[in-house]
Every structure is written in structure tokens, then in C-alpha cells.
UniProtKB/TrEMBL annotation:
This is YtzH-like protein. Pfam families: YtzH. It comes from Peribacillus loiseleuriae. InterPro entries: YtzH.
Length: 92
């Protein structure tokens, strides 16, 4: 059974929050973020304001997949991670 967009959003926020608090992640997490974002971007039930945030999160996942230092990548995006999760909470 596929996840609803609400569950996908919750999962995405959980992964981003974990990156923010733990300051570490894995390639598979970035790949999962990428899949979630792609699915949410084509869903008509997702608020347009959230979709603009999702575009930034997609770029984050893309650069995370190709980075040589995952932890540094997460550390560099600490402020954005907080802003993205807060924004998704505000509009969803």
C-alpha cells in the first residue's frame, strides 16, 4: 500500500530533522529524500508553498548524493534544514 502524501511528508521531515540533530546521514537517506520529494512535487494535494521548499530539499539531496563528505554537507546546511522542516510544518 503506497504512503499518502501526509505520511510521505512526515517521513521526509523525520529524515531532515534527524540530519539536523544528528549531523550525519547516509547515501541511502539522500536517495530516499530524493524519491519522496519527487513524489510530493507531482502530488496536487501538496501546498504550493511546500513545493517551493521541496525544490530546495531536492537540490540538497542531489548534492548530498554526490558529496565526498556527508557529515560536512549536513553541517553546512544546518540552518536550511531547520527552516525547511519549520516551513513544511507551517504549510502542511
Amino acid at each position: 500500500m503506497p504512503l499518502s502524501h501526509e505520511h510521505q511528508m512526515t517521513l521526509l521531515k523525520d529524515i531532515l530533522s534527524n540530519h539536523q540533530t544528528d549531523c550525519c546521514g547516509s547515501i541511502s537517506e539522500y536517495e530516499q529524500v530524493e524519491r519522496l520529494v519527487k513524489s510530493l512535487l507531482v502530488n496536487n494535494g501538496v501546498n504550493q508553498n511546500v513545493k517551493s521548499i521541496l525544490q530546495d530539499v531536492y537540490q540538497y539531496s542531489q548534492s548530498g548524493i554526490s558529496t565526498s563528505d556527508l557529515d560536512e554537507h549536513i553541517q553546512t546546511h544546518q540552518d536550511q534544514l531547520t527552516q525547511w522542516v519549520d516551513g513544511m510544518n507551517q504549510y502542511s
